[in-house]
Amino acid sequence: MRVKYKLILFFLLLTGLRPAFSQQKTRLNTGWEFVRQDLGGVWEAVRPVVAGNPESVPLWDKVTLPHCFNARDAVDPDVNYYQGPGWYRTQVAVQNPYPDGRTLLHFEGAGQKTDVYIYTTKVGSHVGGYDEWTVDITQAVADFQKTEVYQKQFKGQVPISIRCDNSRDLELIPSDLSDFNVYGGLYRYLNLEYQPAVALSRLVAKAEVDKAGKAGTLTLKAVLPETVAAGSAPFSVRLLDPRGKQVAQYKGTLAVKAGEQDLHQFAVKSPRLWSPDAPQLYTVQVTVGTGAQAYQQSEKVGFRHIEFVEKGPFMLNGKRLLLRGTHRHEDHAGVAAAMTEPMIRQEMVMMKQMGVNFIRLGHYQQSRIVLNLCDSLGITVWEEIPWCRGGLGGPVYQAQAKRMLTNMIEQHYNHPAIIIWGLGNENDWPGDFPEFDKQKIRAFMTELNDLSHRLDASRYTAIRRCDFCKDIVDVYSPSIWAGWYRGIYTEYKEVSRKEFEGVKRFLHVEWGGDSHAGRHSENPDNALAKITAGKGADERAGDASLFGGSARVSKDGDWSETYLCNLVDWHLKEQEIMPWLSGAAYWPFKDFSTPVRPDNPIPYMNQKGVVERDFTKKEAYYVFQSYWTTQPMAHIYGHSWPVRWGDEGELKMVKVYSNCEQAELFVNGKSYGVKKRNSQDFPAAGLHWNVPFVAGQNQVRVVARQGKQTVQDEISFRYQTQKWGKPTKLTLEKVAEANGLTTVEAKLFDAQGVQCLDAASWVEFSLAGAGRLLDDLGTSSGSRKVQAYNGRALIRLEGKPGQTVVAVQSAGLEPVLLTL
After folding, report:
1. CATH number for the domain running over 635-720
2. Where is the Glycoside hydrolase family 2 catalytic domain (predicted)?
3. 24-194 has which CATH code?
4. What are the Cα distances from residue 441, in Å, to 466, 469, 488?
5. Which one, of 108, 107, 296, 291, lies nearest residue 195 by Cα?
6. In this predicted structure, what is the pLDDT of residue 536?
7. Per-residue model confidence (pLDDT) at position 803
8. Residue 398 — φ and ψ, nearest 5°?
9. Which of 769, 768, 786 is nearest to 777 (CA)?
């Protein structure tokens, strides 16, 4: 199985995703200009310009797509992120090779309201930042190519201008109360597509198999556009098995008319089944027409049988599958929502390597690239629409929600990875409207549930955290944050069981806690002593705030990676012995930006990820690996913990996260014995040792064994026995230089010159002269304003010796300057 898994990853990295949407499609990535403001009208984007004349302003920036308005300001500690209009423009050569064919602009997603122009003609608009849509520019291009300005001003190119707008709008989903940024821009790929006269708008492929996996059927339908001319056309369909071998073929005649048409139904005996361990994908190839005018489309499908047992677990292909999941936001350091295909692939492969077999895509329809990877990697999916917080708007609001649900289901219907359509998130959260009527919300939720089942009867519906609607959907997830927003983490199983008994089908999505990358603790569970146990672990209004209210770890804890690892460790240990559990999904995989958390240790960042916003792994990543993967691994806790502390001769805990049968620990060359892994022996599944360190440098090594295989890990750190007082002094020094970047480190010391290893003071970096800080990245080492982690903070920069001065300051302390 490990060999098969490696081959899947290798194939993905080499070949990427599924075949192209159609045979004549080009990504428009380069040659764009952008201005982050409104124009007086489209004429300002296309009028003739002479350098130095008034028409040359506003100034446009050169950009590549995907591109997001908020690539940097989403995590700028000093400003609200920009919400408003922005314009893009480019020029392209349009040469459709098909007589009577159509020329389309295919948007994979743009935020949040979009208008599209060919020269000065408006050719299309769209509302909604996350679904795909197309604009037919055939006639507008033909008309423009007849004009004098086409040849004289634009030299045979067609000018495309696009206005995107993410202004705040209460009648638009998602709500601006949401715990994520409502981004603006062309932050997914934009494609120029040529289609012949007869082409499909959509190919519907429904792959089904009985519970025994013996009898499979594949039902194919074609959807044709409104613009198609009535008639008939020959078509053929080929079905290839996962090895590329043709297993079925059909030829027929298609009645060419707008709307949905039946193509064919194949019977597939004992199909190769799709699963997380073996994501077997068949290929459907459809050809309409003949010769050079033929339209071709290829889709991947998978045969699998899904069942959420009432009052029980999740079943895949007749066997229980514990859903081991996480969540994904479309967000990354330096680009915000504008993640490229290689970035997305890297993120999804990292999830799979962590052991994930389930993902909830929060809280909106995500890129087709993500869904293709889930199919290929074997990751089951809950995908949802962005009806998130704020209440319920009026007719325009509700029509948008229905339209986005319809688009999501129709556009992603063929993906075998998808098992759940999500209808909403935290819809019990008021705030956007004077009225908050639970009965009206229930009625609208019922409409969405019915619509989902009409569009797709084969999948389940679900929502998270809206108790007064939990009986409407097929699957419900309450809010359980044991050990973070409420209660202590040892209550997790008890609270989950209670919630499980109150619904038809239970799935726990969103659990975990924040951690400030690089911050570690010798006493991580201290805050639990302040928490009242037995009061339940579900989140309530105000619990996410860092101010006021009852004691809770989210407000009163240390936000250390150490505490988060303990919380994760406990949850995973318990999930191993909950036979009724369908599954759970940790929130989220990666830190992401949010406008509603300005006071977090990295301002405007939700820091609950197990990797940072730039893919840097936190320690908790390896806790998951130790429970969820089979490839032998071992990881000593503390790779980013350069200085530990305690008394001389004090026994200190060393934890090793490993999936191996046994492990032996060595400290400074001395063996401290072999321990056997036991998932129920908390912490670290029994692989923990209490050992003495020596003052100064220490070396710790582990050798873990699984059968005949051996894996090792090693760390070194300084052990400090000196006690410290409050910080009175800052220092700043250069600690590394690589790839043209310099890393500087600020440290906090007390009056005696002892490093304050628990200091969490705010520090702020700045730069003068040549160069720039690599800030506004939303990472612990990529923010100019950040809380210290164990009395230190890092930042990288571009600079020139003798021409760059870096400064650091912290309230109440003397600022420090460093000349490179």
Report:
1. 2.60.40.10
2. 309-522
3. 2.60.120.260
4. 10, 8, 32
5. 296
6. 59
7. 96
8. -70, -35
9. 786
Is 308 within 8 Å of 505 (Cβ atoms)? yes
Q: Which parts of the chain sit beneath pLDDT 50?
A: 1-22
User: So what's the architecture of 729-819 in CATH?
Assistant: Sandwich (2.60)
The residue whose two tokens read 């490990």 is 2
Q: Are domains 202-307 and 635-720 of this chain identical in fold?
A: yes
- What is the reported pLDDT for 378? 98
262-316 per-position pLDDT tens digit: 999 999 999 999 999 999 999 999 999 999 899 999 999 999 999 999 999 999 9
Q: Which two tokens stand for residue 726?
A: 């409050």
Neighbours of 552 (CB within 10 A): 25
Is 358 within 8 Å of 351 (Cβ atoms)? no
In the three-class reduction of DSSP (H, G, I as helix; E, B as strand; rest coil), residue 451 is classed as helix
- φ/ψ of 627, rounded to 5, equals -100, -30
606-621: b or e for each residue (b if 16 or more CB lie within 10 Å)? Answer: bbbbbbbbeebbbbbb
Q: Does residue 798 carry a catalytic annotation?
A: no
| Contact between 605 and 593 (Cβ < 8 Å) | yes
What is residue 263's predicted lDDT score, i.e. its pLDDT? 97
**In this structure, what token pair is assigned to residue 342?**
């290689």
Question: Are the CB atoms for 477 and 507 separated by under 8 Å?
Answer: yes
What is the spatial distance between Cα 509 and Cα 464, in angstroms, rounded to a whole number?
Answer: 7
Q: What is the pLDDT of residue 532?
A: 79
| pLDDT tens figures, 156-179 | 999 999 999 999 999 999 999 999
Catalytic residue among 193, 299, 426, 499: 426
What is the pLDDT, as a whole number, of residue 529? Answer: 84
pLDDT, residue 486, reads 87
Q: Where are the domains of the chain?
A: 24-194, 202-307, 310-629, 635-720, 729-819
pLDDT of residue 533: 77
DSSP character string of 761-791:
-EEEEEEEESSEE--SSSSTTS-SEEE-SSS
Which residues are 92's β-sheet partners?
A: 158
Taking alpha carbons only, the member of 671, 667, 723, 733 closest to residue 700 is: 667
Residue 541, pLDDT score: 62
The domain made up of 202-307 is a member of CATH 2.60.40.10:
yes
Determine the topology of domain 310-629 in CATH.
TIM Barrel (3.20.20)
Tokens standing for residue 580: 């009724």
Contact between 251 and 303 under an 8 Å Cβ cutoff? The reply is no
User: Which candidate, 11, 615, 593, places its Cα nearest to that of 347?
Assistant: 615
Residue 773, beta-bridge partner list: 797
The Cα–Cα gap between 221 and 795 comes to 55
Distances (CA, A) of 34 to 123, 163, 310: 20, 10, 52
Return the DSSP state at 216: E
